[in-house]
Amino acid sequence: MTSHGMAAPRLSLVIPAYNESALLPRLLDTVMTARARYRHGPDAVEVIVADNGSTDDTATIATRYGCRVVRVEPRNIGAVRNGGARAARGELLCFVDADGRVDPDVFNVVDETLTTGKYSVGATGVMPERWSLGIFCTFVVLLPLIWVTRVDTGLIFCRREDFNAIGGYDEKWFAAEDVVFHLAMIKAGRRRGQRPVRAAGAKGIASMRKFVKFGDWHYFTLLPHALAMMVRNGAITRMAREYWYVDERE
Question: Mean pLDDT of residues grouped by 10 in the chain (250 residues)?
């Protein structure tokens, strides 16, 4: 029980957000539908919006939907995810980007998957909100990387105790922090005889706003730079600033 006499939620969803007033309502509509379908009841899911210094109505919108708003100052996506996780009370943690959408049964699928005890970390996978030849070719190129590395995308989920055991997201990474996190969780789970999982039947919908801004073929020029950045693990590069931290929402 909490200090207010209310039972702690079973599952916490963390949504990192920076000036997301345009797309956050779309996500939260799908989250509220999924909460209503959760077999433990909607109150068993808490939704935390980790507000990374937004200057628009992000916090107001989140509050209107009944979310907990946590202010996280560093402009570092790993720090924002960790800030939301520190505020979480659920034993199961989920993370999803503010511009995506979730499946109506996602919380049931996450719960059922983690309850088996077989998995260290999971993801739902995604489908793009629209298709084009460039987007299709991008997915074709990325799929083998997912199969080989077992690093997936969409709504990411794990047990809070396992998240805490590896120290959460590595805040040295200003991009690809989700890849680094996934690999660390896989390594930690291997010692317990656990493996990563793609949750069946709960794919999310991914925003294509980066494809709108940079073009439907931009991954084919971006990917070599992103891989080089991961190898160096250095400070923010110009590419990282332009792609992940500076956009039309500012």
Answer: 64 97 98 98 98 96 98 91 97 97 98 97 96 95 85 95 96 85 96 94 95 91 65 54 63
The DSSP bridge partners found for residue 49 are 15, 69
- The single-letter code of the amino acid at 114 is L
Terminal Cα-to-Cα distance of the chain (whole angstroms): 40
Residues 6+ apart with CB under 8 A from 53: 18, 71, 72, 73, 75
Q: Are 129 and 206 in contact (CB under 8 A)?
A: yes
Please provide the size of the chain in residues.
250
Pairing of strands 204-206, 92-95: unpaired
Residue in the block written with tokens 């999924």: 34
Six-digit token string for 66: 């009944």
Task: Provide the residue ranges of all domains of the chain, joining segments of one domain with +.
Answer: 11-245
**Centroid of chain to Cα 64:** 21
Mention every residue, 6+ apart, whose C-beta is less than 8 A from residue 81.
14, 16, 50, 95, 168, 169, 177
Buried b / exposed e along 218-245 (16+ C-beta atoms within 10 A): ebeeeeeebeebeeeeeeebeebeebbb
> 175 with 243: CB under 8 angstroms?
yes
Pick the CATH number of 11-245 from 1.10.357.10, 3.55.50.30, 3.30.420.10, 3.90.550.10: 3.90.550.10
